[in-house]
Amino acid sequence: MPEGKIIKALSGFYYVLDGEKVIQCRGRGVFRKNKITPLVGDDVVYQADHDKEGYLLEIKTRVNELVRPPISNVDQAVLVFSAKEPTFSTSLLDRFLVLVEANDIQPIICITKMDLAEDSREQIHQYAEDYRNIGYPVYLTSTESGSGMEEVIPHFQDRITVFAGQSGVGKSSLLNAISPDLKLKTDGISAHLGRGKHTTRHVELIHINGGLVADTPGFSSLEFTGIEAENLGYTFLEIGEKSAECKFRGCLHIKEPNCAVKKAVENGEIASYRYDHYVEFLTEIKDRKPRY
């Protein structure tokens, strides 16, 4: 049976990419019966009577799946933050990094509008260095037609990529700069709310530089619903690495004695703001109301 990947879902039809051709498929009733919704990004087995139309027969095991946007098997996320308008926030970036790491997605950090950040440029370069030292690729771009994005584009090869990050930072503008054929609608920042207006609708994977990129921003929900307190440290890579040296297994790096993580914060090996965000997120997870 032929296999392919769903690159678009619209009005009950699933568009399956198989090599160079795209087959319009419907889902079998068995999916509805088993409460399975095929997602963009799914690797599927399908049956086609001819080259244009067919049926989905099977959905292969997913590596991961996101709720917003509904997409599966994501390899990497370009996390887009602006240096200014809205102001760069390490707390928000760390929140996104936790969600991305928890879903086994490789993050790429992109800080836009560097040309507008005269007063904070030095500080942002320092943050960029901190995140590079942790092991993350960090790219700084200017507002001029996504200048600086040419360094990000090679990362798309053979991967499924989503864009995510603050509202109003110009994710759609960046995608348009990378692939002008997209002509994605862009709105400015709503001055009243100080956040961008949502301009994207259904999900579609588009071909860019030998890979597939989702044409809609991801992670509109930033709650840590699926993350347990004991696993949070592993989503902060440098904390996860240091925790192997803690005296107690299962150390949460708060009040425990002989904690290698707290010692690394004191020594400046781990940035204090990263540790503060870890503590803040840990409190949030512990205070979470149980769902029944």
TrEMBL record:
<keyword id="KW-0342">GTP-binding</keyword>
<comment type="similarity">
    <text>Belongs to the TRAFAC class YlqF/YawG GTPase family. RsgA subfamily.</text>
</comment>
<dbReference type="GO" id="GO:0046872">
    <property type="term" value="F:metal ion binding"/>
</dbReference>
<keyword id="KW-0963">Cytoplasm</keyword>
<dbReference type="Pfam" id="PF03193">
    <property type="entry name" value="RsgA_GTPase"/>
</dbReference>
<comment type="function">
    <text>One of several proteins that assist in the late maturation steps of the functional core of the 30S ribosomal subunit. Helps release RbfA from mature subunits. May play a role in the assembly of ribosomal proteins into the subunit. Circularly permuted GTPase that catalyzes slow GTP hydrolysis, GTPase activity is stimulated by the 30S ribosomal subunit.</text>
</comment>
<dbReference type="InterPro" id="IPR004881">
    <property type="entry name" value="Ribosome_biogen_GTPase_RsgA"/>
</dbReference>
<keyword id="KW-0547">Nucleotide-binding</keyword>
<dbReference type="InterPro" id="IPR010914">
    <property type="entry name" value="RsgA_GTPase_dom"/>
</dbReference>
<dbReference type="InterPro" id="IPR030378">
    <property type="entry name" value="G_CP_dom"/>
</dbReference>
<dbReference type="GO" id="GO:0005737">
    <property type="term" value="C:cytoplasm"/>
</dbReference>
<dbReference type="Pfam" id="PF16745">
    <property type="entry name" value="RsgA_N"/>
</dbReference>
<dbReference type="InterPro" id="IPR027417">
    <property type="entry name" value="P-loop_NTPase"/>
</dbReference>
<dbReference type="GO" id="GO:0003924">
    <property type="term" value="F:GTPase activity"/>
</dbReference>
<dbReference type="GO" id="GO:0042274">
    <property type="term" value="P:ribosomal small subunit biogenesis"/>
</dbReference>
<dbReference type="GO" id="GO:0019843">
    <property type="term" value="F:rRNA binding"/>
</dbReference>
<feature type="binding site">
    <location>
        <position position="246"/>
    </location>
    <ligand>
        <name>Zn(2+)</name>
    </ligand>
</feature>
<feature type="binding site">
    <location>
        <begin position="112"/>
        <end position="115"/>
    </location>
    <ligand>
        <name>GTP</name>
    </ligand>
</feature>
<protein>
    <recommendedName>
        <fullName>Small ribosomal subunit biogenesis GTPase RsgA</fullName>
        <ecNumber>3.6.1.-</ecNumber>
    </recommendedName>
</protein>
<comment type="subunit">
    <text>Monomer. Associates with 30S ribosomal subunit, binds 16S rRNA.</text>
</comment>
<feature type="binding site">
    <location>
        <position position="253"/>
    </location>
    <ligand>
        <name>Zn(2+)</name>
    </ligand>
</feature>
<keyword id="KW-0690">Ribosome biogenesis</keyword>
<feature type="binding site">
    <location>
        <position position="259"/>
    </location>
    <ligand>
        <name>Zn(2+)</name>
    </ligand>
</feature>
<dbReference type="InterPro" id="IPR012340">
    <property type="entry name" value="NA-bd_OB-fold"/>
</dbReference>
<keyword id="KW-0694">RNA-binding</keyword>
<feature type="domain" description="EngC GTPase">
    <location>
        <begin position="72"/>
        <end position="220"/>
    </location>
</feature>
<dbReference type="InterPro" id="IPR031944">
    <property type="entry name" value="RsgA_N"/>
</dbReference>
<feature type="binding site">
    <location>
        <position position="251"/>
    </location>
    <ligand>
        <name>Zn(2+)</name>
    </ligand>
</feature>
<feature type="domain" description="CP-type G">
    <location>
        <begin position="63"/>
        <end position="222"/>
    </location>
</feature>
<keyword id="KW-0699">rRNA-binding</keyword>
<feature type="binding site">
    <location>
        <begin position="165"/>
        <end position="173"/>
    </location>
    <ligand>
        <name>GTP</name>
    </ligand>
</feature>
<keyword id="KW-0479">Metal-binding</keyword>
<keyword id="KW-0862">Zinc</keyword>
<dbReference type="GO" id="GO:0005525">
    <property type="term" value="F:GTP binding"/>
</dbReference>
<keyword id="KW-0378">Hydrolase</keyword>
